[in-house]
Design a protein that fits this description.
Pfam families: DUF1007
Keywords: Signal
Number of helices: 5
Helix content: 10-25%
Protein name: DUF1007 family protein
Shape: globular
Number of strands: 11
Radius of gyration: 17 Å
Structural class: alpha+beta
Mean pLDDT: 85
InterPro entries: DUF1007, UCP008159_ABC
Low-confidence stretches: 1-5, 11-18
């Protein structure tokens, strides 16, 4: 039985690595503002070649924007929605809610990788002046590593650059967490309340004047 909600979606059947994580998604996120408020996150998830294989096989030679790509994007997005976008946002210690549906989404092939792009809207516009927000994107099981390769993979829209600053913080997990993750094979899953993936998740901080 393949573990991890994202894996059920993408059918990651080919990995033979013995320790978590087994698959990798490179994140890029743009924080979107409008009329002095924080309104959305524009996300781009680039899946590693092994993870992409099944999706690209199903897409075949379909052209970008074709019905096949639209169907694949809808299937992937439905499962991402089922996990609250794999994203947690906090403001003053309280969770910020997202809308139940993205305002737009699409999937495409970039060389040998599948790329999912979508706009994750906040349920309500949030104030920016003097405020601080943090958000993280992660698979709780840590079967999938979801991370930013470069600090500038998290950016601000042009409307926010004068007022806000953004930073990516990469945690240093404990030796205990590292050893536990390395001990898990493909069939294992950590206890749900452990939130192993959260211990490895990068945190993006948006601080505004």
């Amino acid at each position: 039985m393949i573990r991890g909600a994202l894996l059920v979606l993408l059918a990651f059947l080919t990995s033979t690595v013995s320790a978590h994580p087994h698959s990798f998604i490179r994140l890029k996120t743009e924080v979107i503002g409008d009329n002095g408020t924080f309104v959305a996150l524009k996300m781009r998830w680039t899946m590693d070649e092994l993870t992409s294989a099944d999706l690209l096989y199903d897409a075949g030679d379909a052209q970008p924007g074709s019905e096949i790509w639209k169907k694949l994007a809808a299937e992937v997005m439905a499962n991402v929605l089922g996990q609250h976008y794999f994203t947690e946002m906090l403001h003053n210690g309280q969770r910020v809610k997202f809308k139940n549906r993205p305002t737009e989404y699409s999937m495409e092939r970039v060389e040998h990788q599948a790329v999912l792009t979508f706009v994750l809207p906040l349920a309500e516009p949030q104030p920016l002046s003097g405020q601080r927000y943090t958000f993280s994107t992660f698979d709780p099981s840590y079967y999938v590593d979801m991370s930013y390769e470069e600090d500038n993979d998290a950016t601000l829209s042009s409307a926010l650059r004068e007022q806000c600053k953004i930073a990516v913080n990469t945690p240093t997990p404990s030796e205990e967490s590292l050893s536990f993750a390395q001990s898990l094979d493909k069939e294992d899953a950590p206890p749900e309340d452990m939130e192993l993936g959260k211990q490895f998740a990068q945190t993006v901080t948006v601080s505004c004047q």
